[in-house]
Write a structure and sequence with these properties.
alpha+beta, seven-stranded antiparallel beta sheet, three-stranded antiparallel beta sheet, 5 helices, 10 strands, globular
Length: 212
Amino acid sequence: MTGNTTGYFGLATQKAVRSFQKNNNLISSGIVAAITRAKIKSVSCAAPTSELKLESTYLNKSLGFQINYPKVLAVFDEKKSDSMMDLAACNKQEWEYNESISQNFSEVSFGPKCSKSGGYILSVSVHKDKSAKDIINDIGMQFKDRKVSSQNITLDGKSAQLVTVTTNELKDWKSQVVIYDDGANRIITIGGGGDKFQALFTQFYKSFIFIR
């Protein structure tokens, strides 16, 4: 699947799902139902927790933050399809970052080079054109029975939300996004690569530092 990493299931993700379904001879509905989920699982596997080391540091003074990400982590295998993961082949893949900066929306995505076409794995986004409510409403918008829960956390000592969205339609589907609203028309979101990268996502957002 292609596109920028947002950390939640919105219109861009739905478009990527349709593309994935089309490329794998499935009905292009944009909904991750049982058949699509099985296909995704057949071409993917989780990275071992033991390999989750955040050894590199990204700093952007203009966006006002610093965060750590892996130098090497077993993920995508560029010799196979974009959505295929091969732990043995990808142990030597070094991570990089990609910046997409604009006036109303900026995003920095992190992942190995071979995962670029799939949208990388982790991301930090700065929104100036959406409210926190709008962002939350976009998460899992394809599910009619979506359930949203929110946990108060701290992000570098500041109050933030860890939003979790689940659905009964897919028992093992879960999306989590950290949302920080600075109260001055700027919202920071931190997204991860889904449930299979849960441990990595947690370490990632906990390494976040505001640059003042």
